Amino acid sequence: MRLIIALILPFLVFFTIGKPFQGIICLILQITLIGWIPAAIWAVYALSQYNTDRKIAEAHGKG
């Protein structure tokens, strides 16, 4: 579900993963039509990093 949000509304993903400052920067980037594609790529990348960090934390018993 977050992947779909990352493609449609990239800035919203940062708020769902607990990074509001990056979400605001992404929103500013997303306002321009040209910036939409880099914002979506950045959101997908951040989401993949979030998922990886969460899996590592669960493997170490911290999740």
Indicate the mean pLDDT.
89
Order of helices and strands: HHHH
Query: Ends: how far apart?
Result: 21 Å
Shape: elongated
Q: Segments where pLDDT lies below 50 for 5+ residues?
A: none
Count of alpha/pi helices: 4
Number of strands: 0
Radius of gyration: 12 Å
In terms of DSSP E residues, the strand content is: under 5%
**Major sheet description:** none
Helix % is over 70%
Oligomeric grouping of the chains: single chain
Structural category is mainly alpha
Describe the fold and architecture:
The protein is built from 4 helices and no strands. With 63 residues, it is mainly α. The relative contact order is 0.16.
Describe the structure concisely.
The protein is mainly α and 63 residues long.
Give the SSE map.
Layout: H1 2-8, H2 10-16, H3 20-31, H4 36-59
Helix pairs in contact: 1-2, 1-4, 2-3, 2-4, 3-4
Keywords:
63 residues; mainly alpha; elongated
